[in-house]
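Database export, one record per block. Field names are fixed; values are copied verbatim from the stored entry.
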Amino acid sequence: MSIQLWKEMPEGFLKKRFKAFDKLDHAVKRLIVDLAKDQKFKCAFSFCDKKYVLEIEHEPGEKLSYTNIRGLVCHRCNLALRAYEMEERGEYSSWENGHPYIGDDEVEAYRYTFECRKDLLIDALEEKRMGPVKYWRKKRILDMLDARYEERRLPWQHRSDETWDGKIRSPEHALRVLAGCMQFVVEQLKKDQNYQPPENFLKVTAQIHPIIEEAKAVREQTATDNAAALTSDSGIPIDG
């Protein structure tokens, strides 16, 4: 199976040799081949035309896995990206030409593509773990959040107008938005005790509150269902 996947890529396309490629999990190997095809067998960055000896770039500080591979890039772009992210974190980079070589737009597009792919993967794994009924119950709540939020362009949204599509894609994303709203209001109140929160903030808060309550009820019901199922399987009562 590994040799078949390997042959789907041009000879010399990857820096990694077949022996090392063969040791990877099948899902990781399949992802690498799919990425190669999606990138039209060239570096992931659109401005780069390198087609050989590409490296498997993944999230900093983590080992290679199916959920953290970001793309296939040439050595120069990999160094440039590393230097960019080191500078972004306030760390020292010895590669002086790293930052000018790769810009904010290229990095944002690269990261956004990865996050979208990762979200789809996490959704698939979550549905498999939870089961279709519980998973789609959760999706219904998230869709309600999307419907009530997507048309409200608030000043504390972290994405730019070019990349933000107005949709909340995960519970973690929803929490970040809520936390951003609260932080914005708190900071303004510290500066001016007479500050009045924006009307949109008050409307969103009022509309999200019943959804949060419903989410709590769903979580409690899920915990009860899981405990009941475990008790039924084992025959041992479980204390709440």
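Remark 1: Residues 2-117 form one domain.
Remark 2: The chain has a mean pLDDT of 77.
End of record.
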